[in-house]
Amino acid sequence: MHIYRTHTCAELRAADVGHDVRVSGWVHKKRDHGDLVFIDLRDHYGITQIVTEVDGPAFAVIEKLRPESVVTITGKVTARAPDVVNNNLPTGAIEIRATEAVVQSAAQELPMPVAGEADYPEDIRLRYRFLDLRRERLHANIMLRSHVIASLRQRMIGQGFTEFQTPILTASSPEGARDYLVPSRVHPGKFYALPQAPQMFKQLLMVAGFDRYFQIAPCFRDEDARADRSPGEFYQLDFEMSFVTQDDVFAAIEPVLHGVFEEFADWQGKGRTVSALPFKRIPYRESMLKYGNDKPDLRNPLIITDVTELFRGSGFGRFASMVEGGNVVRAIPAPNTAEKSRKFFDDMNAWAQGEGFPGLGYATQKDGVFGGPIANNHGQEGMKAIADALGLGPNDGIFFAAGPVAQATKLAGLARTRVGEQLGLIDANRFEFCWIVDFPMFEYDEDNKKIDFSHNPFSMPQGEMEALETKDPLDILAYQYDIVCNGVELSSGAIRNHRPDIMYKAFEIAGYSQADVDTNFAGMINAFKCGAPPHGGSAPGVDRIVMLLAGEPNIREVVVFPMNQRAEDLMMGAPNFATAKQLRELNLRPLEVAKPGA
After folding, report:
1. What is the end-to-end Cα distance of the chain in Å, rounded?
2. Overall pTM > 0.90
3. What's the pLDDT band for 594 if we cut at 50, 70, 90?
4. Phi and psi for 587 in degrees, rounded to 5?
């Protein structure tokens, strides 16, 4: 018999009754019933119930065990009585009557329990992540992550992509987020940077003639944490393709993502559906108007409508004067709210003010009659015109977001989401994908009073050189695209600008000289001068994919060893101070850090 186990804690069934077996694992729970002591023994695979009598040969050891102690149990498989069979457990028809118990590792008093799913403060969970990872939900999330990555890899290879690894120590980039810098010992005063993404390397692989590349790539950005973004590092399914159009990129990655989401849609019996192929395509400007952002949650049926012109010269003076001043008015439907109290609408207005907006206007409606201050001033006929524009029924209310375009757009988008949530309109059992396409190539930077890139400076402008030379820069669209699922941006991508002449011209419009491009992007521009194929790609975020599939609201729940929101690893004590010896080797000396409040 094996020294530690003949079976895992998930294997034994009724057919094994009468067999002598050995299992090892952690003490999940212990129950003392007087003449009998029961243990739920847990390993990576599952749980098996152990039982011993008070006068049994293993009782003396088992009776002293604390939760989470590691123990090896030898004994005989016996059938449970019919009235105590646990149908929720794969091993619930049997138990092991212990004849021997060997403690492999005794646990001390725990800082947090493993059994049960009670919530605990984040600092405790992260400091003792190894304990947190033993808990059923988190353990399952990490296994889901592993399965998802394996599936992504298999599907990419099936689509003809080849996996390559790109450098981790590289050069700092002047574009994008803050870099993590690594001092060089052999080049005093110089620094490497950890890659924010393998962007330039994957494009250079296309220049090198490899045609279809992918990688489950680690990326490093010195950014603040959010619910859907880890501080410090994250992983993405990075890919690039040569001699392709935007349609070719979509056709390659859609089956991969659709297949993975269909494969795991029923994870832990959730039984969710996935939007059909091909994924819906929504132009950027349409998305900003209809959904109030560029990452719409299409599970929400509400559509925002611009009703600016319907308030021009109207009886509602406040909106009429705002419209004359160049502002806009956006309307958000609130279906079937005739029976809602006035408090529902007032609470929405208070919520908008709490978000930093002046307020959220509204009109109620019951049996086709409109109520509220806006309706009283705008008139029933005017309100009916708005309701018709929105396609409303006789018992649907309306919320209004008014102000400068950017402010009204943002408020309308947030209000659309909140109304959808408050009215229970968002179906949690669906995955709805879409592409956001036709991003503007340039935008006007109000702070610096200049034209600048709005998205990715290395994207190919639609219309190429002719567009750059003949169009207003703010009218030029780019071959840029985002893929969005349930309101979560999974990736940004583009057809790349592979021609040096077009790249120089695009940067010139944004205020950069040819020398700036040659200095800051020397590796890429020099490579393109040696013959580069048309190419494009994207990089869906692995962490966000798993977060969606696991149904978790925070990305930390699907990362094995995450940092906290201050980018600290509480378990390992990072970041920490370097020793004087290490600093000397790197030709560095510490600056005195100002104390808080000094």
Report:
1. 67
2. yes
3. low
4. 60, 40
